[in-house]
């Protein structure tokens, strides 16, 4: 069964964006995954197609209305069991583990927030899982949704030309990825590490692992500590 993605947004023209190109685009053409961009504004009932209102209690900005957004979510189908994600800076950080879990399913529904946020009642009533792609604020959830879909689609079976190419990437083994090199052998006085051209595959794997450990320890001590604790446990 093909992976189905439904994205609820005020800017459906932003999709599929870069996902219409390269490996993801070819996979879409082959029918390995599909994308339905749903215009939230289509579910407003007043003549101005209003989707937002002022925040209760006062304050700056506007808030997406729960009734309008709920109708948009419900339009994906009463029996739709796909996970429902809300892109939000206050959500749980996206991890490679969660990406693998989502990729193992039959699809996902992603809600793209705008303005100051989404009415809390629709988050609770429709079981939205708040997901963050980083500790920063974007102008809307659309770029974040594209990031989530990019991460998922690339690991769907048959999307990457070589399924083994994902095994040594950052986060797959709890560590950052090791350095990469390619020809020419010497560039601007810098040589490819001799171990990589030795033909000794066991030594190469050992070197790559050691480099990954060192990089993770230096750049992401939080990941390093987690990997160490899981190894000892």
From TrEMBL:
<comment type="function">
    <text>Specifically methylates guanosine-37 in various tRNAs.</text>
</comment>
<keyword id="KW-0489">Methyltransferase</keyword>
<protein>
    <recommendedName>
        <fullName>tRNA (guanine-N(1)-)-methyltransferase</fullName>
        <ecNumber>2.1.1.228</ecNumber>
    </recommendedName>
</protein>
<dbReference type="GO" id="GO:0005829">
    <property type="term" value="C:cytosol"/>
</dbReference>
<dbReference type="GO" id="GO:0052906">
    <property type="term" value="F:tRNA (guanine(37)-N1)-methyltransferase activity"/>
</dbReference>
<dbReference type="InterPro" id="IPR023148">
    <property type="entry name" value="tRNA_m1G_MeTrfase_C_sf"/>
</dbReference>
<dbReference type="GO" id="GO:0002939">
    <property type="term" value="P:tRNA N1-guanine methylation"/>
</dbReference>
<keyword id="KW-0963">Cytoplasm</keyword>
<dbReference type="InterPro" id="IPR029026">
    <property type="entry name" value="tRNA_m1G_MTases_N"/>
</dbReference>
<keyword id="KW-0819">tRNA processing</keyword>
<keyword id="KW-0949">S-adenosyl-L-methionine</keyword>
<dbReference type="InterPro" id="IPR029028">
    <property type="entry name" value="Alpha/beta_knot_MTases"/>
</dbReference>
<feature type="binding site">
    <location>
        <position position="113"/>
    </location>
    <ligand>
        <name>S-adenosyl-L-methionine</name>
    </ligand>
</feature>
<feature type="binding site">
    <location>
        <begin position="133"/>
        <end position="138"/>
    </location>
    <ligand>
        <name>S-adenosyl-L-methionine</name>
    </ligand>
</feature>
<dbReference type="InterPro" id="IPR002649">
    <property type="entry name" value="tRNA_m1G_MeTrfase_TrmD"/>
</dbReference>
<dbReference type="InterPro" id="IPR016009">
    <property type="entry name" value="tRNA_MeTrfase_TRMD/TRM10"/>
</dbReference>
<comment type="subunit">
    <text>Homodimer.</text>
</comment>
<feature type="domain" description="tRNA methyltransferase TRMD/TRM10-type">
    <location>
        <begin position="4"/>
        <end position="226"/>
    </location>
</feature>
<dbReference type="Pfam" id="PF01746">
    <property type="entry name" value="tRNA_m1G_MT"/>
</dbReference>
<keyword id="KW-0808">Transferase</keyword>
<comment type="similarity">
    <text>Belongs to the RNA methyltransferase TrmD family.</text>
</comment>
């Amino acid at each position: 069964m093909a992976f189905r993605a439904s994205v609820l947004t005020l800017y459906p023209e932003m999709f599929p964006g870069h996902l219409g190109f390269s490996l993801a685009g070819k996979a879409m053409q082959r029918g390995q995954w599909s994308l339905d961009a749903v215009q939230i504004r289509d579910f407003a009932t007043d003549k101005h197609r209003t989707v937002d209102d002022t925040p209760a209690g006062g304050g700056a900005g506007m808030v997406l209305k729960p009734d309008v957004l709920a109708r948009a979510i419900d339009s994906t189908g009463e029996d739709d069991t796909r996970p429902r994600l809300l892109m939000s800076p206050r959500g749980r950080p996206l991890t490679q583990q969660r990406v693998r879990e989502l990729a193992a399913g039959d699809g996902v529904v992603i809600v793209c927030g705008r303005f100051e946020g989404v009415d809390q009642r629709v988050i609770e009533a429709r079981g939205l899982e708040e997901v963050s792609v980083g500790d920063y604020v974007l102008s809307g959830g659309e770029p974040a949704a594209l990031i989530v879909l990019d991460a998922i689609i690339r690991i769907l079976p048959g999307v990457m030309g070589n399924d083994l190419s994902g095994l040594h990437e950052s986060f797959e083994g709890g560590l950052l990825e090791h350095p990469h090199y390619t020809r020419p052998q010497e560039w601007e006085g810098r040589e490819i590490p001799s171990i990589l051209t030795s033909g000794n595959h066991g030594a190469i794997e050992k070197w790559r692992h050691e480099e990954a450990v060192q990089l993770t320890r230096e750049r992401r001590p939080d990941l390093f500590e987690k990997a160490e604790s899981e190894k000892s446990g």
